[in-house]
Write a structure and sequence with these properties.
Elements: H1 12-33, H2 43-69, H3 75-105, H4 114-137, H5 143-168
Helix pairs in contact: 1-2, 1-3, 2-5, 3-4, 4-5
């Protein structure tokens, strides 16, 4: 088990809180920024939609990964790499929010912004998956299993939750 990460530092909890704030804030900002281009979208509901959908997917990925690998990985280590992974993705989403804001200022047609948003979310996902799978590999967690869990739980259920919660919001 890897115990050399920052989780052995008593201040890591502050780091985790910072990561959580960044993840929630960045997701809210991105979800809200979609309202700049889509008339049926409101800033607050867009923010809730992304936060809740992503959170549900992450809870599934985290929980099932831990249930499968609890003999190989420590809970604190999994929390650390999960939060680190979200920071990678949310950094791209914050940049995507800026792209949405600039495009709105330049009066780009809403339909034109669908493709850049899809591509930025895809890039965010690839970046996060690469980090998650690489970190899981350091704990002798099979790469194929990590990829399968990522695709099924984070991506698959992520799409489901986005659809499901879009009907609510």
């Amino acid at each position: 088990m890897n115990t050399t990460s920052t989780t052995t530092n008593p201040y890591s909890y502050l780091l985790w809180i910072g990561y959580l704030i960044l993840a929630i804030g960045g997701s809210a900002l991105y979800g809200g920024s979609l309202s700049l281009h889509f008339d049926h979208w409101s800033f607050d509901l867009g923010a809730y939609w992304v936060i809740i959908s992503a959170s549900c997917s992450w809870i599934l990925l985290f929980g099932i990964t831990y249930l499968i690998g609890y003999k190989k990985i420590s809970l604190r280590w999994l929390v650390q790499i999960s939060l680190e992974t979200t920071v990678y993705g949310v950094t791209v989403l914050i940049a995507a929010s800026l792209v949405n804001l600039i495009a709105r200022g330049l009066h780009f047609p809403s339909l034109l912004m669908v493709t850049p948003n899809i591509l930025l979310v895809l890039f965010s996902n690839i970046l996060m998956a690469d980090h998650y799978i690489s970190e899981m590999k350091t704990q002798n967690f099979p790469k194929q299993l990590s990829l399968l869990l990522w695709l099924a739980l984070l991506d698959g259920f992520g799409i489901f939750f986005l659809y499901f919660f879009s009907k609510m919001f």
